[in-house]
Amino acid sequence: MVHLNGSLPETVAAVDLGSTSFHLIVARPHSDQLVVVDRLREMVQLASGLDSSRRLSQEARDRALACLRRFGERVGHLPRERVRAVGTNTLRSAKNARRFLTEARSALGHYIETISGMEEARLIFLGVTQSLPDPGLRRLVLDIGGGSTELIVGEAMQPILMESLYLGCVTLSRRYFEDGEITQGRWRKAELAALQEMEPFQGRYRKAGWEQAVGASGTVRAVDAVVRSQEWSKEGITMKSLKRLRDAMLKSGRVNGLEGISPERVPVFPGGVVLLLAAFEALGIETMQTSEGALREGLLHDLLGRIGDKDVRTRSVSSLADRFHVDREQASRVERTAMGFLSQMEAPWDLGSRGCGQLLSWAALLHEIGLDIAHQQYHKHGEYIIAQADLPGFSRDEQRMLALLVRAHRRRFPESLLKGLPPPWSDTAERLAILLRLAVALHRSRGPDPLPDLSLQVEETKIRLRLPEGWLDERPLTRADLDSEASLLADAGYALEIA
């Protein structure tokens, strides 16, 4: 549990838009624990609504939106900073995800992020670790979702190895068992597909080792319920119990007569069992326990970390800056000036929310990371590094926006790229980029002397920068830099006036 500075929020909530189920958890922080006050879960089967062209069907979207409206009745009144909602594999891959997310945010009443597979794995590990005793153990955590499977090895609350496979119980079941029939041939093909996905990293995982294997989420818990009800195992899931389950399914030819499986899970159960058995075989797992905690619990603890000034995103940015040898002194100079501009522009440019201060601060720290590759076009190198890196804590939209701010800090203003961001980021990104550009231009000399008091005013697309009288006369290069910046901004439709 994260220790918070100051008072605890009364209520926090997390929403997990999974490929199979949507989950809502509402909790109250108390001392070093989260007290759950409400849980909702609905088998939306979002992944089943993806057609051959990777587009969500209207039926699947309607099911999802109806569920989110019900969730919204429970959390719609909570402040924005106390709710975190994320979409996973299906929303990562659906071609019409952006349109759906616009509708989904309206239905829920809160912003919904799409997270990467690696971020999903990190949050799952955090949720599992926080829900089990003895957090110091080295654990292997497995989570079989509808569209992806996450595998993590870590100690305490720190992941060491993470993988997200583009294969889940829904995708595998639809590919090999769509009509519900289970045959030896189909099973073997599905098993080989799962083993092929795990082959590239199984050696690293076996070498890392672990003291305890833990499974999270619906598939693993359903398997655990079946093997216990059939008395095939009394100590969690074992390889022997899994093989007995497989043999029973092959003998029946369908998922019939097995206690512990809800009717909604029957269509996706065969693919989940194949994946679990393949993981046992590939990684040499002997016994697996189950966990109540998963992605949504990880979301809650991560949210409390942000509230308590222990934001993992800040550590991610600092680590990236160190890796690419950022000049911290220059970055700090640019950051101070950019944040000073932000304090003046919060009201007129509506930059007081959506984490604008954090994004601008992070962009200032990272704006020169591309220099570690080459000076020419280094702003583009920096954009690529940030866009492609695994940055723990960041959603896809946040990471894309940070990358574009770094791209936009010099040379031609990339207005079309910034406008291409999803709402509400597009206008916000453009305005933050202008503040960063001005700060960079004023510190191009890289000198240690502090800047004088600066005043920034805006009127629609007119920007007026006021400096002390005579200051620019003593700095002709800075004047030239600002004149160049005025010309570049003019091409993007902004008028920069130096007074």
CATH topology (fold) name of the largest domain: Nucleotidyltransferase, domain 5
CATH architecture of the largest domain: 2-Layer Sandwich
N-to-C terminal Cα separation, in Å? 52 Å
Give the number of DSSP strands. 14
**Average pLDDT:** 93
Taking pLDDT < 50 over at least 5 consecutive residues as the criterion, the unreliable ranges are: 1-6
* Residues in β-strands, percent: 15-25%
Helix content: 40-55%
CATH class of the largest domain: Alpha Beta
Silhouette? elongated
Radius of gyration: 26 Å
- The DSSP helix count reads 19
Which class do the helix and strand fractions yield? alpha/beta
The CATH superfamily label of the largest domain reads Exopolyphosphatase. Domain 2
Describe the sheet with the most strands.
6 strands, mixed
Query: How many discrete structural domains?
Result: 3
The largest beta-sheet arranges its strands as 8-7-6-9-11-10
Brief write-up:
With 499 residues, the chain is an alpha/beta fold. The chain has 19 helices and 14 strands.
Question: Please, could you describe this protein's structure?
Answer:
The longest helix has 18 residues, at 58-75. The chain has 19 helices and 14 strands. The chain has 3 domains: 12-114 and 297-304, Nucleotidyltransferase, domain 5 (2-Layer Sandwich); 133-290, Nucleotidyltransferase, domain 5 (2-Layer Sandwich), CATH 3.30.420.150; 311-451, Hypothetical protein af1432. 48% of the residues lie in helices and 16% in strands. With 499 residues, it is of the alpha/beta class.
